Amino acid sequence: MATIDILVGTTSGNTEYLADQLSEQLEQNGHTTRLHYEPDYTELTQELTQESLWLACIASHGAGDYGDSMLDFADDLHQQHADLEPLRYAVIAVGDSCYDTFCKAGRDFDQELEKRNAKRLVERLEIDMANDDPEEKASTWLNSFLQAL
Ligand SMILES: Cc1cc2nc3c(=O)[nH]c(=O)nc-3n(C[C@H](O)[C@H](O)[C@H](O)COP(=O)(O)O)c2cc1C
Fold first, then answer.
1. Which atom of ligand 1 is nearest to the CA of 8?
2. For residue 1, is pLDDT > 90?
3. Cβ of 63 less than 6 Å from ligand 1
4. Is 43 exposed, middle or buried (0-12, 13-18, 19+ CB in 10 A)?
5. Which Gene3D superfamilies match (predicted)?
């Protein structure tokens, strides 16, 4: 079974906590996960194969910027325009609906990967920290992710 690389874009830790929970849940379902708290673009993209699989958990900050831990990765992703085929991926975007730029970083990431020929496994989950229970919502969404594998 393919290893799932979990990419974490966080500034204040909420998304890291969520990613840890998801990793545990995936491991309980028999999957192997690798958590990337500061994802390295070169490392993650240098040898993409049919098995490559990313679950990106990304908080929005600033005016829809990526969480701090993923700023370098985002710069590389948006500047290098690499072809990411045959990567498969899914996105959990974390944000707060009181911002006009709700979940913008996760949306940008999703759009960019699609442009780079990566294959979206399931529709992006958007978590609104103002209204949602993040763990419950993510846990329910994870079932559709698991089914798509
Ligand atoms: C300074 C600041 C800016 C934020 N900007 C946005 C934003 O542009 N869009 C959004 O959806 N959420 C925004 N948020 C909400 C965060 O995404 C939310 O608090 C999230 O839980 C932070 O996740 P983290 O702890 O993993 O960094 C912002 C929060 C802060 C404190």
1. 26
2. no
3. yes
4. exposed
5. 3.40.50.360
**How many structural domains does the chain have?**
1
pLDDT tens digit string along 138-148? 999 999 999 99
* CATH number for the domain harbouring residue 95: 3.40.50.360
Residue 103 is part of which domain span?
3-148
Q: How far apart are CA 34 and CA 55, in angstroms?
A: 10
pLDDT per residue as tens digits for the range 52-108? 999 999 999 999 999 999 999 999 999 999 999 999 999 999 999 999 999 999 999
Whole-number Å distance between alpha carbons of 2 and 108:
25
> Which amino acid residue places its CA nearest to atom 5 of ligand 1?
61
Q: Token pair of 21, please?
A: 């929970």
User: In ligand 1, which atom is closest to the CA atom of 15?
Assistant: 26
